[in-house]
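Retro notes, item 3 of 5
We never archived the inputs for the shikimate-3-phosphate complex last cycle. Fixing that now. Sequence and ligand:
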Amino acid sequence: MELCSINGLKGTITVPGDKSISHRSIMFGSIAKGITEVENFLKGADCRATIQCFRTLGIEIEESKSSVLIHGKGLHGLMPPTHILDVGNSGTTTRLLSGILAGQPFDSKLSGDASLNARPMKRIIEPLTQMGANISSILRNDCAPLYITPGNLHGIHYNSPVASAQVKSCILLAGLYADSETSVTEPSLSRNHTELMLKEFGADIRSTHALSSTQATASILPCTELYGQHILVPGDISSAAYFIAAGLLVPDSEILIQNVGINPTRAGLLKVCEDMGGDITLLNERTQAGEPIADILVRTSTLHSTTIEGDIIPALIDEIPVIAVMAAAAEGTTIIRDAAELKVKESDRIETVTDNLLSMGCNVTATEDGMIIRGGCPLKGAVIHTLFDHRIAMAFSIAALIADGNTKILDSKCIDISYPEFYDTFEKLL
Ligand SMILES: O=C(O)C1=C[C@@H](OP(=O)(O)O)[C@@H](O)[C@H](O)C1
Ligand SMILES: C=C(OP(=O)(O)O)C(=O)O
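Structure as it came back at the time:
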């Protein structure tokens, strides 16, 4: 994809359904009894991988233009897979599905693409093994492909070294099949969609937030049955993030993004935009199945630098590439720290972001757990090496809109992972 600078993005748009909630709707719907109907499901490649995995596990899933119907077979209704489960590029599918598979009375294997098979899985192998699961890395490198065989699961209390919703959700899902309570404490609260949605499906799940620290604990009791639900998936704030950044950065813009999920465990970007002087207004705030939603009005703003660190990091982890682009255009030096998790995403996002910003003429330094971005230098068009990472392709498409000259985004097709209609949404604002 080739892009150049523009002016005046104007209009009202919606963004596709939330990726995290879409994955969970298929998974929980499949192990619930009865039909789960999902509206505004994200038809990106990652969530399609989740659908395919559950079809392979014997679940009938019907797709229409407006919704997805899951014919759930109950907690013990999955069938042994006849072939290896293909998790594609999706960390969420891999880690959450492993938690469910650990509780099944049959063997399974799961594997993904080269990027997925290089991501760390010890973070789930360790706690699942403590619970009595039999899960191993087939190549003995603590990565997928993973092999899971039946084990008798018991409840544990797990102190997670990372604030990761994938790790937390994996353990809680295995906890559905354990013989006693399972709980997970994380150093700071990660996205809580599993806790909110499993409760709607009938699970006995609780969350507590320590008053004296940022630590958060979620616990679940073994369950006899979950029940099918009707789910309306809110727009994905991680996808809205690109249009928020575009609205702030592109001169003479005003964009209204309707129906966006603003769950506080996801909405760190809004706080950062506010700290940077961004003109953002939340309209029509409401709650749907425990998930807060709003329309977001964005207008062109003069941005200044900020420091992003500590317990806000999990609430904006996927938005850091586009935040870095905003920081490059802002006056002053922005510091991002406590974000070492960026190194184990679809690419090493500390490296991919800093390398591409450098090639656009920005003065940026990578650090062990983040980056230092000295903003205010004019960006120039460049060839962007996405390394097939969808967030890099989208973040640098925004950088292209304010750069001098043409920018070429290599392998931009990877955007299909989370936002197949990304460039079509842009067309609506021209
Ligand atoms: O649970 C989820 O749906 C996700 C959790 C986050 O990963 P971690 O749990 O690895 O931080 C996030 O980066 C990913 O895009 C989706
Ligand atoms: C990290 C991401 O997803 P996952 O971990 O599910 O691959 C992402 O979408 O940015």
